[in-house]
Structure formats: C-alpha cells, structure tokens
Design brief:
This protein is mainly beta and 377 residues long. Helix content is 11%, strand content 49%. It has helices at residues 2-25, 144-153, 343-349; strands spanning 29-33, 46-56, 59-68, 72-82, 86-108, 111-112, 118-119, 132-136, 139-140, 159-165, 168-174, 177-178, 184-185, 188-204, 209-212, 228-235, 237-242, 251-255, 261-269, 272-277, 291-292, 302-311, 314-325, 336-340, 361-363, 366-369, 373-376.
Length: 377
C-alpha cells in the first residue's frame, strides 16, 4: 500500500512539474503578423483569452490572458500584431563590437601573495563563472580599468561585490590579495567586450532597425549569453573562408578593426542581435527592394533561396531546400531544417560556416526566416 501511495505522489509531482515547465516557457511578449495565430505549447486546462486591444496605424497591440480552465489567471502575454509588414533582406557580413553591462567573470585562479603563498580570495564565496560584476562597494563598474582602480584603492580592505547572475542580484564580500608587485588582486579573470563577424538578416526602412545572426552571442569561456550594455555595428571585409568538413565547422574571417561604424546594437537575445543602422549607404545594397514577411503557415517544404556574402561587397542568392518546418517552436532559434545543395555554395564553403548564421531565406518572393538548422547534401 505504501508503494502505491509513493507512486501516486510521484505521478502528481510529475504532473505539477510538467505544468510548471509549460507555464514558465510561455513567453511574456510575442510579435505576430496579421492573420498569424498565437502558437504556444499548452497542457490540458491552460487557456488563452484576449482581454484588451489597442490599434495605432499599422500596429495592433493585444493583451492575452493565460489561465487555468478559464478561472485562475496565471500569466499575461503582450502581443504586437503587425499589418502589411515589409523588410529588406540583407545577407551582408558585418562586424559587431559588444560591450558588457558590467564585467563578466570568465575564470578564477590562485594568486601568489607577497609572502609567496598561493591564495584563493574567492574561495568559499558564492561567485561563479558567468557572473557579472556591476558594482564594487557603491561604485558602478563599466570596464576592466574601473575594476582594477577600485581593487587597488582598497589597500587590502574587504570589498562588497554586487553580482548579476541569470537576472538575479547577488552580493559577495571579498578580501583582495596583495602581490609581491604591490598590486591587489581578486583572482578573477574578467572581460568587458566581445567582437566578431556575422550576417545581417534584415533591415526595416521606416524604423531603421535591423536584425542579425539568428542566434545570440555567447561568451566562449562560460557558454552563456553576453549581457550587453551597448554595441556597435561596423562594416567588415572578408579576409578568408575556411570550408566546412565532416565533423568540423568552417568559418568566415573578417577584418573589423578600422571599419566605419554604421549603427548600434541594443539587444543580444537567444533569437539574434537587434539594433539600429544609421548609415545604410555603407552596406552598398544598391537597388535591393523590401519584401513582405510570410506568415508561418505560408512556409512550405521544398525549394527556397538563401542570401549571403562570400566575397567583399557581393551578395548572391543560393538555392536550398527546406526539409522540415517546426511550426510550434517559439522557444529557441531553430525554426526549420534546411539542406544546402547549391554546387557553387558547397564549393566555396562546404556548407554553412560560422559567420553565415542569420542569412535570410526567401521563398515565393517573401522573407521567411533567418534561424535554422542545416546539413549539406
């Protein structure tokens, strides 16, 4: 009898956990095109109801209530519905310079103090790789130089670090170590910026907003999404292309050091980089026209084209095939599976290489997606 009760308890805990995960994964905000249905994963009893609507020019805003059996409200979704939305597909390789909101901790190491002993100032403290230092005592930290200044000013006195971890504010009291060079250190490896190249996906002429990559930029050391304060978009010159091989991804390498700034980055998300382009002329788009954005249910398996730049200044269209479409996927940046079978593209890259993520896909004259999984023929 006790085993039966245990099994029943485990079953109900599993049900509760399933509902908790489902509700947690429901987004707080969504953007839909006119005619597109809200598509979220739900379980029995989880219902959605439109409770308010505001219209403004070509944009409608709707508040959707998520409830349990229509009785107990559990969440609200702010939905933006766009009418006749048109964007300009880009497919241009750009440079990105991102500056963190605070200082990112990417590692920890022992320090040799002035008596030649190895010390770990961070030992037994709740400090982890991936945490961001945003304050030392009451001083906001915006660069590595700021951090060094505050640590050396301490003269070995304890410091209160304010940390950001997955959206939660934490504090840690740490004692800097004096080295034989009369410097003070915490034993923390940190960084305050990240740079790289990627593909710009689209540009919206009215607002000057753009999107790139189709995925977020993560830190190489921690694997976590970089929490940015601001960023720059610059032009990029392609230096070389390393072809993909079986079991080894290729890469586009670009030069961004002295390239002119053309815009700013405001968001680094799991679905891509977003911001504003202020000087579109430097991308040399020529007579490229805007196209309508396809509804999700308009996307079909079969032939499509992908726009990308493999030579400086030359953006071309390459044939691909859409093999699978994940209509109900609103939770990560993999919305379709594509096959690369264009002989010219395969000859140049061996398939999809690092730096091409975010290349726009066009089908039946409409922009469909810039995030996908792919394989080569």
């Amino acid at each position: 009898m006790k085993k039966i009760r245990d099994y029943i308890a485990i079953f109900f805990l599993f049900i509760l956990y399933s509902y908790f995960v489902c509700i947690s994964n429901i987004p707080n905000e969504v953007i839909l095109l006119s005619g597109e249905e809200l598509n979220i994963k739900t379980l029995l009893g989880i219902e959605t109801t439109e409770i308010s609507k505001v219209s403004n020019e070509n944009v409608n805003k709707t508040n959707i209530e998520v409830s349990l059996f229509g009785l107990a409200p559990i969440k609200n979704i702010d939905a933006t519905i766009l009418e006749d939305y048109e964007i300009m597909p880009l497919g241009k390789v750009i440079g990105l310079k991102l500056y963190t909101n605070g200082i990112l901790i990417v590692g920890m190491s022992e320090i040799e103090d002035e008596s030649h002993s190895l010390v770990k100032p961070f030992d037994k403290l709740d400090i982890k790789e991936g945490d961001t230092i945003i304050k030392v005592n009451e001083t906001e930290i915006s660069s590595i130089e700021n951090l060094k200044t505050e640590v050396n000013k301490s003269k070995g006195r304890n410091l209160d670090l304010t940390l950001l971890r997955d959206g939660t504010i934490l504090t840690a009291n740490i004692k800097p170590v004096r080295t034989k060079n009369n410097e003070y250190k915490l034993g923390l490896w940190v960084k305050d910026a990240a740079t790289g190249v990627g593909t710009a996906s689209f540009y919206e002429p009215k607002s000057q907003k753009f999107a790139a990559l189709g995925h977020g930029i993560t830190d190489n050391d921690t694997g976590k999404l970089i929490n940015i304060d601001f960023g720059e978009v610059v032009t990029s010159k392609i230096v070389s292309i390393t072809k993909s091989e079986h079991g080894k991804a290729g890469e586009i390498k670009g030069a961004i050091g002295r390239q002119p700034t053309i815009g700013e980055v405001t968001k680094n998300t799991d679905f891509g980089i977003y911001g504003k382009i202020n000087n579109m002329s430097l991308l040399n788009m020529g007579s490229r026209q805007s196209v309508k954005v396809a509804l999700r249910n308009e996307i079909q398996r079969g032939e499509a084209e992908m726009l990308c730049t493999l030579e400086d200044g030359i953006t071309k269209s390459y044939k691909i095939k859409i093999e699978e479409i994940y209509y109900d996927n609103d939770f990560n940046n993999k919305s379709m599976l594509i096959e690369v079978d264009d002989e010219e593209l395969l000859k140049k890259t061996g398939g999809i290489v690092r730096g091409l993520s975010g290349s726009p896909i066009i089908q039946n004259g409409k922009f469909i997606r810039c995030s996908y999984q792919c394989f080569s023929k």
